[in-house]
Amino acid sequence: MSTAPGAKRPPRPHRRPKKDPARITAFRALRAVDERDAYANLVLPPLLREAEKQGMDRRDAALATELVYGTLRGQGSYDAIIAACVDRPLREVDPPVLDVLALGAHQLLATRIPTHAAVSATVELARAVLGDGRAKFVNAVLRKISSQDLESWIGQVAPPYEDDAEDHLAVVHSHPRWVVAALWDALGRWQPGSAGRAAIEELLRADNERPEVTLVARPGRIAVEELAEELTGSTEGRWSPYALRLAEGGDPAELTAVQQNRAGVQDEGSQLVALALAAAPVEGRDTRWLDACAGPGGKAALLAALAAGRGAALVASERQPHRARLVARALAGNPGPYAVITADGTRPAWEPGSFDRALVDVPCSGLGALRRRPEARWRRRPEDVAGFGPLQRALLRSALDAVRVGGVVGYATCSPHLAETRAVVDDVLRGRADVEFVDARPLLPGVPSLGDGPDVQLWPHLHGTDAMYLALLRRTA
Ligand SMILES: C[S@@+](CC[C@H](N)C(=O)[O-])C[C@H]1O[C@@H](n2cnc3c(N)ncnc32)[C@H](O)[C@@H]1O
Fold first, then answer.
1. Which atom of ligand 1 is found nearest the CA of 266?
2. pTM, 2 dp
3. Which of 22, 101, 240, 433 is disulfide-compatible with 60, CB 3.0–4.6 A?
């Protein structure tokens, strides 16, 4: 039917954006991380389940997961590139628009998705979640981004290494500058012979790799070999005799052994911390063990299993009631005696000198677990590190008071930041003459590159673990 001359042309029927559950789910997860300070690893699974109920298949679920984690990891580099493609400061671009642009940049620059598909799918996403007007803006920016590959962009937007090494590495490896500086300082302290440009770049690169999923076969509850039978393609751990590294794919939460608490998901670095504390020599009584900061219970579950095998009992204490409930769930079925209590570790619910071994795995910035918490690097601020200091010192002092003379305390953090590791221990030891270091290195047999001791710092690029720190301390008087 033709339109009569002079008559107004009817508006074109509005075309609905195509349904794309993977990108919509990824966008929703990024919004939750941004708006609600949610953790991607907590917010994504329920969003995926919801989308799966509405028909999203496994391939799309895998794509959504890769888009969320990849975008969060690369955000520093992508922001620098997006900034070069828009004509106003990024802080003036609406956060949801920035999230769509970052999702698009990730697809264009770091995945095998063909350029035309990445642009058109992201523009469709923009139409669905931002509206047609802003989708045009997204389209224009993505077309500019697609004109070069990642390497050329980085060459253009990162300052030369020679001018400002930390700024350069921050853009190239997508870490905030202050985090680059802190990691580099710590690397210099623990690996003085190999803390040059190559080493820091290896570390930053390792932070941006998806970590392997590692399980722990809790001793006395299941043998590693038996667990391996449930897991085709899994390989044994590098350092922990109880570790099993999972092959790609598969959800460990579906394993019977995990559901029954006989096994759990646990990074090898965390396993090593518990194993080293349990292996530290203690003279005399060795039946009362404490985990003073136990939530959510990963190390407590391993310690409780080890304690059970040696006729000892574990008290797992946690200040937050909801996290204490997670500890109780993690310890359920432990073959030996244990108790889970809700208590503030700085105001102990136990008599001084009650324990033979104590772990104090203090709250920290988490800069050692950036591989699994990609958003943490953008959320944390330098002042957070200082903010944890008084609590970390108070918890260590209380843990030292909690053990008897001859007893051993393990002070652990999942941060390599020097202000949260050795500086805390040195400060606390300066104030008391009743504590000595125990060399932790021989208690991590076979683990290389542990530095001069007596405390140890693990590294993702050297050990394939989170960057856990451990100091072992003995009460001497
Ligand atoms: C790094 S996490 C411990 C992780 C745990 N060891 C594991 O392996 O699953 C630190 C824990 O300390 C708890 N916490 C913070 N302040 C505390 C306090 N004053 N007393 C006891 N626990 C505290 C936090 O709620 C958090 O669960």
1. 8
2. 0.93
3. 22
